[in-house]
Each structure stands twice: as structure tokens, then as C-alpha cells.
Amino acid sequence: MIAFAGEQEQPGARFTLDTTLVLIPVTVTDSTNRFVLGLHKGDFHLYEDGSEQTIANLSGEDAPLSVGLLLDTSGSMTDKLRTSRRAAIQFLRTMNGQDEAFLIEFGDRASLTVPFTSQLEEIQKRLALVTAGGLTAMFDGAQLALHEMQKAKNPRKAVVIISDGGDNNSRYSRTELESLVREADVQIYAMGVFQTSIFSGLSTEEVNGPRLLSQLAEQTGGRAFTVSDTNDLPSVAARIAIELRNQYVLAYRSKNQNKDGKYRKVEVKITPPPGIPNLKVHWRLGYYAPSK
């Protein structure tokens, strides 16, 4: 069981994680990038800070999702907003009746425009009204999403960010956001158009934005997808949705019972079944232990 405790409102504040059962989402693909399903608990080996753990449970079922959609509405998205809406709607169409989602828009500031709902048409209606303008408060949007995710009703949680670049107008810093992401039990996926040709004249934060998104996604077991053509965004959205529906979740109780609040690194290895070599594995890289 994983639960969040405490509130988080100001920069530098921390999420605390009270855990009796650690959940590690894992995606397995083969050499052609196809999802590998049908693996068993004995095929996985999980290590925490180098010490092998006993996997209590392996779930490969399509469990309900709680999803936060983050849409970049800054001025640079003006010509990309129509396709970004299509991508968001494509993702929403893959969700089922037990899923829930919220929508955050970030331009000069980040705003929760549709709170958690299972009536996903509410988000689609809002998306039709979105306009672009202003700077990019992406870090603030991600922080707001992690805070809102504390209200999720489903244990499987993901944030999907649709953006075309880095941050240039947030109160939250990169370091603060990285800390919050490591503490939160949320997978982060990102999709957007990141073209090196547009980097001339941009700030360091804007140039490094795509790299940071990739690092944040990797840390949580998610992924960042980049495209050079906005028309590819809807297919990327579909890819993310399919990945979320084709994951394993490993559950274990840590052998380290110290409530020291320290970050613990997690590593997942697989013994490939005969005839399926060269498997690629993505997983949540770690978590913070509970504090006394």
C-alpha cells in the first residue's frame, strides 16, 4: 500500500511517502520495440541499493489509471496547438470507465482547468477552448500535477506532458522539481517537438528543457518521446497509452526497515525466456523511504 502524507504548497516543500509495499512499474520490449507480455514473477529480479528483494506480487493486468494531462499553452505553441489538442484527445480515447484524469494548462502560469474526473468529455470540451500565449511555466505545471495527483483514487498514476521546449517562467527551480519527482509515486511521460534548429537565442533553461523532461521521465519509469513534425504527436499519444496498458507492476516489501527517509535506488533485471533475447527494460529507478 502506498499513500501520500502531508500537503505541499510552497517551493522547497517535500512529499512524504509512507510505504508498506513498494510498487515498481516495469515496461519490457523486444529488439523491435514490441511489448513483451506473459512474463512470470520468476523471470524478474529486483534489487534495492544492490540487495536483492523478494517480489511479493507481479501484476500484468490492465489496472485503472489516474492521469494528469499537462498542455503547454505558451506563445511558442500557437502553430502547434491544434495538433496538440488532437494528441490529448487521442490519449483520452484510450481510457476506460474506471480511469480518471485532470487537465493542467501552463503558459505564463500553471492552472488546473479540469480537476480529476471520470467524465473525460469535460476535458475534451476544455481543450476546444484553449488558446496560446505568454511564456512557459512548465516546472510549475509539473509541480501542480504532482500535488493534484495526491487526490488520485487509483494506485497506478501517470503524468503526460505535451510541450515544445523548456521552462522560462516558473517559481519552481529544476532542482526543486527533480526532488519532488523522485519523491512522488508517479510515472512521467513527455511528448513534443524539440528541434535543435530553434535553440539559437534561447535561454539555458529553454535549451535544456527537453533533456530535463527525458531525465525526469526516465527517473519515474516513464519515457520522453520527441518528434520533428507535430502531425506525429497523435501517434505518440497512442504509443504512450498503449505502453501504460502493457506494463508489469512489481510489488515488494523492502528488507531495509529503517525509517530514515533516504532515497533508495532500484534495479530490475530479467532472465529472458528461451527464444526472446535482447529485452529492453524501463522501470521506476527508486523511491524515498518513510521517515520516523
Structure write-up:
- With 292 residues, this protein is an alpha/beta fold.
- The chain folds into two domains: 2-6 and 19-60 and 247-288, no CATH class; 65-245, 3-Layer(aba) Sandwich (Rossmann fold), CATH 3.40.50.
- The protein contains six helices and 16 strands.
- It has helices spanning 81-92, 121-127, 138-148, 174-183, 204-220, 233-245; strands at 2-5, 16-19, 22-29, 44-48, 51-53, 55-59, 65-72, 100-106, 110-117, 156-162, 187-193, 224-227, 248-252, 263-270, 280-283, 286-288.
- Helix 3 packs parallel to helix 4 and helix 4 runs parallel beside helix 5 (204-220).
- The longest helix is centred in the last third of the chain and has 17 residues, at 204-220.
- The radius of gyration is 19 Å and the shape is globular.
- The two termini are 18 Å apart.
- Residues 1-19 have low confidence and may be disordered.
